[in-house]
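Appendix C. Worked example: TfoX/Sxy family protein
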Amino acid sequence: MAYNEQLAKRLRASFELQPQSVRSNISEKKMFGGVAFLYSGKMTVGIVKDNLMVRVISDKMEKTLKSKHVRPMDFTKRPMKEFIYVSQEGISNEEQLLNYIELGLEHAKHKLNNL
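Step 2, the predicted output written as structure tokens:
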């Protein structure tokens, strides 16, 4: 199944707004039948069908899951640890999208700092 190309364009444009130190470390990789954006090799956000996929640090999962239009990522029919899906309604504007990108970047940086 194809992923939402329009959302991919929005993500690319949003990453262009990040500081150079972030932009230069972002790569794309086909994953989960969609596309993922990685920071220094660590997954941040991605797209599966029409859903935004976001990595979230454990400490913020409970609060984030209470947000409207957010649910656990259940790609394998079971919730995946530190992954969420955000429906299109939850990223209807660029501010919302940037907030989820920041969560994903925070997760990647946290993983890199704990290596």
